[in-house]
Design a protein that fits this description.
Distance between the termini of chain C: 56 Å
Strand content of chain C: 5-15%
Mean pLDDT of chain A: 92
Radius of gyration of chain C: 25 Å
Number of helices of chain A: 15
Helix content of chain A: 25-40%
Distance between the termini of chain A: 58 Å
Order of helices and strands of chain A: HHHHHEHEHEHEHEEEHEEHEHEEHHH
Number of helices of chain C: 12
Largest sheet of chain A: 7 strands, mixed
Strand order of the largest sheet of chain A: 1-7-6-5-4-2-3
Helix content of chain C: 25-40%
Mean pLDDT of chain C: 96
Structural class of chain A: alpha/beta
Largest sheet of chain C: 7 strands, mixed
Shape of chain A: globular
Shape of chain C: globular
Chains: A alpha/beta (about 525), B alpha+beta (about 120), C alpha/beta (about 450)
Low-confidence stretches of chain A: 340-361
Oligomer: heterotrimer
Strand content of chain A: 5-15%
Order of helices and strands of chain C: HHHHHEHEHEEHEEEEEHHEEHEEH
């Protein structure tokens, strides 16, 4: 007998009471001070030799102290690992944030982006030494053009909103070329649009005019027509829209806008619903950004980096910004300047004998970013595309739409649906009428979801729906995961509607099982503390 | 006291602020941006800004006139707008250009009817 | 397909539950003539092994910086990044989380952003920094728009010290918004007198130190002159490691400091993703673009962090927002903050000194090459030389000898004949004496 000391091997009765601990930690929930409270000015986790500069070329510009602190490697590792453990993530659970497309991020994408041939090349090293990178950009362009049927693509925008800016800049450039930039100053934007749409238009000096939605959440072509005149530069329309619906009259709207002399900017945030199902070009779109970090699974990274290439119609293609890749013989060149020789086309043109590149060689509207855009994200997105293939990408969209409709079908008896529609696209939208009389809000329900181990859905957006709850499951969720989510949401709503004051209190004070309880945002905004001070 | 449909009030002495109903709609006020003294404004012109955590709202001049005073006390203590919007948490004082514009605004009964 | 959990039976069951006979019924709102029938003319799905093979073959057609003597800078720099950094940023909880809109389950992201903002404020010598921008060039363009908001003037003056791509981005914005933008000629020899160009109509000046050509510029007299005329001084840097050794732009009177943070924690990545740093004075914080993380307390009185002052942003202010920016460069900011934490004050200063020492060594070696004229009297880890031949040809000739020998100024300024013979070279802690010897030997051959 090696060990005969008796000790209990089964748990005693379950304990729910919250016993305080000496450290403030609660088992795996570990408190972590700020870096500046544990770091030291003389501590470093990197070994460098101490170089003394006898001579220097620094003039009078040397500084004394900076105020930074350092940690040794083991301390730094623990600091950031502990911080990471305070985050929810798609790898840990369902992340149904509507409009954000939180799908699985394959790790092959990460591995490919870290190949030295991609990650360790300088943006300005000779073109002869980066042919593989240019071929990668060319291949990605080919995929994006094939998926949308559009004429050209500008890869360089750094994020979705930056892509919107690119598309609207191309429209502005086209208006300048037509001599109408001074008169066409209005951009139509539905109230349901992402805030970036009106912000982008305003940043370019356009005046934003709201387009009201129909009772079913879509935009009516007659309404658009009533707003059209010769002051309209463009309409910015999200399709599928932010209510999770496909704009049925999108082509008629596009035609009407074109007839009135305007352009159609399509916000492609919801492209994941329609990849391989719809030819965007056939909808009359002039420009659309594609969020590689949504549809093509480049990771969201806690808020970036994103990537927002823009596909363009023949009307706008010639205004696309530099840089872009061009195939010449067996190799690739990078067109980096608007003023280079007139024989260079400024856009990534499809091979089309009718297009004479030299016709439009002076029209590129300029440059949006230093270097060539988010190459690291191009690698990840192309890896996703090659992995999925044409069949897999279509299947992904079908499953994304299937999953959203399944959630809608399984919740709509308990959750109120704002619009009387049979099917939705890749996100299911509910409003807060189901909470009427409970004393609870969409926010309370969302916080209670956190206690159940789910990231909340998008709340209070779109603005056209009261107390909106926008659920986007994506294609990555299994049927079992969806069923558990649905069961949880049903249980939450039944509890919310129970009228039991204890339960209501529990909702109103949720979450209870997180590293922090609800945070005082009012205090943060009234007297902003935006950095650590000793 | 007279009211504009965008929830500003103006008192007989030209004091302008936002109504109690408006502060309730906004929730916890975290920031107020006031105009410069001496600025001449037209009725309906955006003159000040009031912000809660999740909303930002313009404060419009209910009538035309010149800004002759601002309530500096709000700068360090925007929460006062929640506490006493219609008394000491006023925004600015107008030297009214045309009294007829004031008469044309809503009275208390009409405003109450509007907000239901 | 390995990424799709559903079986055919699952899909059929779900369609039944939904009340649809066929998947295409769910897509029936799409106009008939815009629907895609069958699959698009792209290859079918492929195994991990097959995809890896395809991409590795593309990667093999590039010459990586680490495989040859390497001297390229001009806005992007190769530094050694500790192994721990890349490990940590690939943790699921950092890599696959969204913007921290639900603070109770995002304290990890929020706390590192707060630490990041503090580090950036300290490095730049400013009061506050935001949670990052897309990159240095877009940060510079946003700074110009911010200056326009503050001064209510709409004209900027761009110094010839500024990275030409950054100037292009600012100019493109101005061309399309109708704002005025005056751009001074590229200044390879540090001869610019920007003070003489100042007048009251200007909203801001944009000036870079160390400059695109490597010169160190004294911002203080420029800031003093500008402030008398109500002009905002926007200071730019592209090599953030320089701030380990050099006077901060904040201490020299800048009002807004923006720059590229790639050098710390982030790889070259052929130009992106990178990390825009953005800092300013406290009094301008409500005019700032981008996300801000702030400290507060939770319902139990414990310290916690939230995104704050969001009424500046597009999702609330819509067409009156300070910027249309919606995201930051979160994961790159994380890499930056981890690397900066590992370095600490001591490590960053040591690293910066080594960078300068390597650049001095490179300069001394090049002084011994006939035909090379060094254009800088001051520099940090990068300087410019004039050659007797077009620099682009020399760089190609060096590349043929397996040396990535700097960036020809003409690559960014092709329209300016005075730039054709100018080469910009950088040295960092990765540069070895052997690399420098190989470069000088090859240069002697090709000149």
């Amino acid at each position: 007998m090696l060990n005969s000391i008796g000790r209990p091997t089964a748990p005693t009765a379950a304990e729910t009471q919250d016993y305080p601990t000496f450290t403030g930690n609660k088992g795996l929930q570990l408190e972590q001070p700020l870096l500046f409270e544990i770091g030291r000015a003389d501590c470093t986790g990197v070994d460098f030799e101490d170089v003394t500069l006898n001579d220097n070329a620094l003039g009078k510009f040397q500084r004394d102290s900076i105020g930074l602190v350092g940690l040794s490697e083991p301390e730094a590792m623990r600091h950031y690992v502990r911080l990471s453990q305070k985050n929810y993530s798609i790898d840990a659970g369902l992340y149904p944030l509507g409009s954000c497309t939180m799908k699985h991020n394959p790790r092959l994408n990460e591995k490919m982006a870290r190949l030295a041939g991609f990650s360790d090349i300088h943006p300005l090293q000779p073109i002869s030494t980066v042919q593989g990178a240019l071929q990668l950009m060319d291949t990605l362009s080919h995929y994006l053009l094939t998926l949308t049927g559009m004429e050209a693509v500008a890869l360089s925008p750094k994020a979705g909103a930056h892509g919107e800016m690119c598309g609207m800049m191309a429209i502005k450039a086209a208006l300048i070329a037509r001599g109408e930039a001074g008169t066409r100053t209005t951009v139509l934007v539905p109230i349901s649009a992402h805030g970036t749409n009106p912000a982008t238009a305003a940043q370019l000096g356009f005046t934003v005019r709201d387009v009201p939605a129909r009772a079913d959440g879509t935009v009516c072509v007659e309404t658009v027509k009533s707003l059209l005149d010769d002051s309209v530069a463009a309409i910015m329309l999200t399709n599928p829209n932010t209510c999770g619906l496909f704009e049925r009259e999108v082509k008629q709207i596009a035609d009407a806008v074109h007839e009135a002399g305007g352009y159609f900017y399509c916000d492609g945030a919801n492209f994941n619903a329609i990849v391989g199902k719809v030819k965007v070009a056939d909808l009359g779109v002039d420009a659309m950004h594609i969020n590689l970090h949504k549809t093509f699974s480049t990771p969201h990274g806690g808020g970036g980096p994103g990537s927002g290439p823009v596909v363009l119609s023949p009307a706008l293609a010639k205004f696309a910004p530099v840089p872009f890749v061009k195939k010449v013989g067996n190799g690739y060149v990078l067109i980096e300047h608007t003023s280079s020789s007139a024989s260079e086309p400024r856009i990534h043109l499809k091979e089309d004998p009718r297009v004479k590149p030299e016709d439009d060689s002076h029209l590129a509207f300029g440059r949006m970013v230093a270097f060539h855009g988010q190459t690291g994200m191009y690698v990840r997105a192309l890896t996703y595309m090659l992995s999925h293939g044409a069949d897999g990408m279509r299947q992904a969209s079908e499953d994304a739409v299937l999953n959203a409709n399944y959630i809608k079908a399984c919740l709509q008896d308990l959750y109120s649906v704002p619009f009387d529609v049979k099917f939705c696209m890749h996100e299911a939208l509910f409003d807060d009428r189901c909470l009427n009389g409970t004393g609870l809000t969409t926010l309370d329900l969302a916080k209670a979801m956190i206690d159940e181990g789910y990231h909340p859905m998008t709340m209070y957006f779109p603005l056209v729906v009261h107390g909106a709850m926008l659920i986007e499951p994506t294609e990555s969720e299994s049927l079992a995961a969806l069923d558990l989510f649905i069961a949880t949401m049903r249980d939450l709503m039944m509890r919310a509607q129970s009228g039991n004051p204890d339960i209501i209190h529990q909702f109103k004070t949720a979450p209870h099982h997180t590293p922090r309880a609800r945070l005082d945002e009012t205090r943060a905004a009234r007297s902003p503390k935006l950095r650590w001070n000793a | 006291m007279k009211y504009k449909d965008t929830h500003e009030y103006i008192k007989a002495d030209g004091t302008v602020g936002i109504t109690n109903h408006a502060q309730e709609l906004l929730g916890d006020i975290v920031f107020v941006e006031l105009p410069k003294i001496g600025r001449v404004v037209k009725a309906g012109e955006a003159v000040a800004v009031v912000e809660s955590v999740k909303a930002a709202s313009e404060v419009y001049a209910p009538v035309s006139g010149e800004i002759i005073a601002i309530n500096e006390a709000l700068n360090g203590a925007p929460e006062r707008v929640n506490q006493s919007p219609e008394s000491d948490a006023w925004f600015f004082k107008l030297k009214v250009a045309n009294d007829a514009e004031v008469s044309a605004l809503m009275d208390e009964a009409a405003y109450k009817a509007m907000i239901g | 397909m390995r990424y799709h959990p559903h079986s055919t039976a699952d899909r059929e069951f779900m369609l039944q539950k939904i009340g649809a006979a066929h998947i295409n019924e769910l897509f029936s709102d799409i106009p008939e003539n815009a629907r895609i029938q069958g699959d698009l003319p792209l290859p079918a799905h492929a195994s991990e092994m097959s995809v890896e093979r395809q991409l590795s073959s593309l990667a093999a057609h590039n010459v990586s910086a680490g495989s040859v003597p390497f001297f390229c800078g001009a806005g992007a720099y190769k530094h050694h990044v500790p192994a721990m950094v890349d490990h940590l940023i690939q943790r699921s909880e950092f890599l696959t989380s969204y913007t921290p809109y639900q603070p109770e389950i995002s304290q990890g992201t929020l706390q590192y952003l707060f630490e990041f903002q503090t580090q950036v404020a300290l490095l730049t010598g400013m009061d506050v920094a935001n949670a990052s921008m897309y990159d240095g060039s877009t940060a510079a363009a946003e700074a110009v728009l911010m200056a326009h908001r503050i001064t209510k003037k709409r004209k900027c003056l761009v110094s010839g010290s500024l990275h030409p791509h950054y100037a292009d981005v600012i100019e493109t914005n101005a061309n399309l918004t109708g704002d005025a933008c005056v751009r001074l000629p590229a200044d390879a020899r540090n001869a610019e007198d920007i003070i003489a160009q100042l007048d009251e109509s200007l909203s801001c000046i944009v000036i870079q130190t160390p400059s695109f050509f490597g010169h160190l510029i004294d911002l203080q007299p420029i800031a003093d002159a500008a402030h008398k005329l109500n002009i905002i001084v926007i200071a730019v840097f592209t090599e953030v490691v320089s701030l380990g050794l050099l006077q901060s732009p904040g201490a020299m009177g800048a009002d807004i400091v923006v720059g590229e943070g790639q050098s710390i924690g982030n790889a070259l990545n052929f130009g992106g993703p990178y990390l825009g740093l953005f800092a300013t004075r406290e009094k301008y914080v409500r005019q700032m673009p981008g996300r801000l993380c702030g400290e507060t307390v939770d319902a139990n009185g414990k310290r916690g962090f939230v995104l704050t002052l969001s009424t500046r942003e597009q999702h609330i202010r819509r067409d009156k927002a300070t910027s249309n920016i919606c995201t930051n460069s979160g994961l790159c900011a994380l890499a930056f903050t981890i690397h900066t934490t590992l370095l600490g004050e001591k490590g960053l200063q040591q690293m910066a000194r080594i960078n300068h020492a390597k650049a001095l060594e490179l300069r001394t070696a090049l002084q011994g090459v006939k035909g090379v004229e060094i254009l800088n009297t001051t520099f940090f880890n990068e300087f410019s030389i004039a050659l007797p031949k077009p620099a682009a040809e020399i760089v190609e000739a060096l590349a043929a000898r397996n040396i990535l020998g700097g960036v020809p100024a003409s690559r960014l300024l092709p329209a300016e004949p005075s730039m054709h013979n100018i080469l910009i070279l950088a040295a960092t802690e990765i540069t070895t004496s052997e690399d420098i010897a190989l470069l000088t030997t090859a240069l002697k051959e090709v000149l």
